[in-house]
Design goal:
The chain has one domain. The radius of gyration is 19 Å and the shape is globular. With about 325 residues, it is mainly alpha-helical.
Length: about 325
């Protein structure tokens, strides 16, 4: 019972950090543009993240639980330790205002655990997941580019003066509420489901009620994390990469949600932040490559390159320490 309570607490800690880092960056597009207040964004995130995890997250949870975790022979206490490491990594990323992928950190920590205890890792599944990390941002760039191109050609190009364009931006600001809800649902279906999948993989006996509780805790944690600490990284994507109007914000979010749900359908845990970075680049390219702050992108992509080996190495040392002292 005590271990299950600890699992719930660690799940909240991880979700809190997802909210402070991942959700804050994704939702920061709408908050930064003024389409949503922070309070409304938090409520929207809380409700839609839970819905996504509960109704559409089983395939990702299965990939993590059965495809990755079950082969490691990890025990419950070790799963709690690994998830705690994941939360600690994202806490550090929030402090340094770096958008970081929870799924990349999670897989890195699991790989580090596997090497620490000399267990078997499902290389095929892990390789497939890693490949999806490379492909999904590219999907984001393409979908963002063509999405905003179509919006400009079919909608914005029909307005002949700035007053009418401004009114159309008001229309898109309203649509941002829809796209914000859509992307929150997508993130819940992927990120929260991936974290819950850790427990479903190492403890098959955990009841469905317990997994449902973990999903609820995950949604609540994301909302609290975004409200309390999300301001630290919220502007990195919303205005750090490219200055966006409401139409660009709507397309970036909607396209990102579509891409994330596409990969979720196939059970691939991808990073919503990575995809959103791709869609923001895509919509920015319509205005010209010079409008994009490439230095920010290089810094973000650099963090993606190092997160897997660094998290694996730290996890290896941490688990070896547990083996020696526990």
């Amino acid at each position: 019972m005590l271990l299950l309570m600890l699992a719930v607490a660690v799940m909240f800690f991880v979700a809190w950090n997802i909210g402070a880092n991942n959700a804050a960056n994704v939702m920061g597009i709408s908050v930064g543009s003024g389409a949503l207040s922070l309070r409304r964004a938090v409520v929207l995130v809380f409700a839609l993240e839970i819905c996504g995890a509960v109704f559409f997250g089983d395939s990702v949870a299965r990939t993590v639980g059965v495809g990755i975790m079950s082969s490691t022979g990890m025990r419950m206490v070790e799963a709690v330790a690994v998830l705690f490491l994941v939360g600690a990594f994202i806490t550090a990323a929030c402090y340094f205002r770096v958008p970081l992928s929870m799924t990349q950190v999670l897989v890195g920590c699991v790989v580090g655990y596997g090497f620490a205890v000399s267990s078997v890792l499902n290389v095929g599944v892990i390789s497939g997941v890693a490949l999806s990390w490379l492909i999904s941002p590219l999907f984001g760039v393409v979908s963002g580019f063509f999405g905003y191109y179509l919006v400009q050609r079919w909608f914005l190009s029909h307005f002949s003066n700035m007053h009418d364009v401004g009114r159309s931006f008001g229309f898109f600001a309203g649509l941002e509420v829809v796209s914000c809800a859509f992307v929150a649902f997508a993130q819940g279906a992927n990120s929260i489901a991936a974290a819950v999948g850790v427990f479903s993989g190492v403890v098959p006996a955990v009841s469905l009620d317990m997994l449902f509780v973990l999903k609820i805790v995950g949604g609540a944690g994301i909302g609290v994390g975004m409200a309390v600490w999300g301001y630290r990284v919220m502007q990195t994507i919303s205005s750090g990469i490219v200055v966006m109007n409401p139409a660009m914000c709507f397309v970036a979010q909607f396209a990102a949600a579509f891409v994330v749900l596409f990969f979720t359908f196939f059970g691939m845990p991808v990073s919503c932040v990575n995809v959103v970075v791709g869609t923001v680049i895509g919509v920015g390219l319509i205005s010209g490559a010079r409008t994009i702050h490439w230095k920010v992108i290089y810094e973000i992509v650099g963090s993606w390159v190092f997160v897997l080996p660094v998290s694996a190495f730290v996890s290896f040392l941490f688990i070896r320490g547990l083996i020696v002292f526990v």
